[in-house]
Amino acid sequence: MILTLLAASVFAYAPVARQPFVRFDDPTYVFENPAINQGLTRGSLQTAFTIIHGGNWHPLTTLSHMLDVQLFGIHAAPMKIENVVLHLLATLLLYTLIGKTTRHWTAAAITAGLFCIHPTRVESVAWVSERKDVLSAVFFMLCLHAYVWHARRPSIPRLGATALLLMLGLMSKPMLVTLPAVCALLDFWPLKRLRRNVIETAVDTDASYPAVSMRRAVIEKLVLAVPVLVSALLTLRAQHASGAVAGLADYPPGVRTANAVVSVLRYLGLLVWPVGLSPMYPYPLAWPVGLVVVSTLVLVGASAIALLAWKRRPWVTVGWLWFVGTLVPVIGLLQVGRQSMADRYTYLTFIGLFLIIGMTVERLTKRVQRVYVVTTCALVLGVLTLRTRDQVLLWNGTEKLFTHAVRVTGGDVLMYDMLGSEYARQNNVETARDCFRKALELGPEYANVSYNWANLELLQNNPKRAIELYELSLARDKSAAAVWSNYAAALTAVDRLDDALTAANKAVFIDAKFYEARVTRGKIHELQHRADDAASDYRAALEINPRSDLAKRGLSRLRQTGG
């Protein structure tokens, strides 16, 4: 079974070996990030633990990207292959975890197989920026293995090892904040450590885990909650600092609650019918009342059924609570970003549902001839493998990915902005302008659209039109250093050097480590015949990004002119 699964995985994920980066977070995470592009240096450790990377604080993920650049250069394919390897390692760890704790190895194989090959995995594996998903999943599984090791013979060192692995996982992705709750679920089943405190189940598992009191179990979880609390505080601080957390005015509590309930139903739909997957799902103005009511009834009804199943089918209770519980941090009650849901949010949450399916199928083998069950499982695995490969192929470039996203979701401001920027890079100017116009129609308040459009006009030697668009962007958001820097470049192009210097100064003030702003200001100083100031800015840019060719050329010009 495992060899078959490995072969299916290699076939499904093989296309990543020929795929480029996509311009959806990958520039921020890797190939346009000066801190990452330097690879591993003497200051890498300090940098990784102090910078906000992609709106998050996850130093191990940051270090893993630095290591990739050190080993492979700035190339997407080896980074994606590494994601696949980490995903397969997480799969193997899940298989052994379920197998040794439940003693139901067929169920373990099915659970791990679905985790490995379900199409909703693709976003986490084929997207370089989601290294945090697969890396944190490995630590998630290792932490649960350590917890099971502790449960077999409780001790402070073993609990400490569990806490340490949890910290490493949180430093890979903060979504692991629910792990103490998952450990609590395992206490109930399959470890059955709280058998003195709860109604006994009729399902036999490994009885070699000694019973503990409820008080001791709670203390253990409180120990694990310490790194969780620290990570949560650091994450909230990082996300607020990067402007990723949406305000209540943008998404009122009622809207968030309705979307959260509907999202549960949509995730269940993706589980059984994984088509129309998208890197982005637009957030609607309002969900139909009928859909919200139906979703609420499904959520309440499924939860009631899961709880009532405890005595005879405890895996249903544990699996459902795993799914719902681990979904809480990303369900949108605290809205981060503009998406209504995301495939990557199912990466660990779906394990609970996969466990329900695995245990149920194994029980069916006792009632139905095994050949029928095996044949059905093989067919499902084959269909999922082909569907996963098709989904992987969509990640072969930004244009292909977001053209698909517009087709399956109807599109939103971010998708058209992404396509406009991609067409601009391809010098498909009119198509890019059409996309930017459509984006502004859908989201006139979105400052990034007018900024990206302005960049296109500046490259097309239309600085006056670029200035209009930069000013439109700044009217909506004055906090972006890049906008001020490029605005300064456009002003420079029309010889408004004093205004350009003012804009460049604002860019440097907002972000002193934004090396492009230093280069822009250096160019302005150079045109104003202020050679010392220009040289100072070019040198500062090279300190931030030693690979900056513009800064190197600026210093070379100054040396040639005697500045």
Mean pLDDT: 93
Output the radius of gyration: 26 Å
The figure for the number of domains is 2
Q: Helical residue percent?
A: 55-70%
The biggest beta sheet reads: none
Globally, the shape reads elongated
Query: In what range is the share of β-strand residues?
Result: under 5%
Number of strands: 0
**Alpha-beta content class:** mainly alpha
What's the helix-strand series?
HHHHHHHHHHHHHHHHHHHHHHHHHHH
Q: Can you lay out the helices and strands and say which pair or pack?
A:
Blueprint: H1 2-13, H2 26-31, H3 34-37, H4 44-50, H5 59-72, H6 76-102, H7 105-117, H8 122-126, H9 131-152, H10 156-170, H11 179-188, H12 214-241, H13 253-272, H14 289-308, H15 314-327, H16 346-364, H17 370-393, H18 398-409, H19 413-425, H20 429-442, H21 447-459, H22 463-476, H23 481-493, H24 497-510, H25 515-527, H26 531-544, H27 549-560
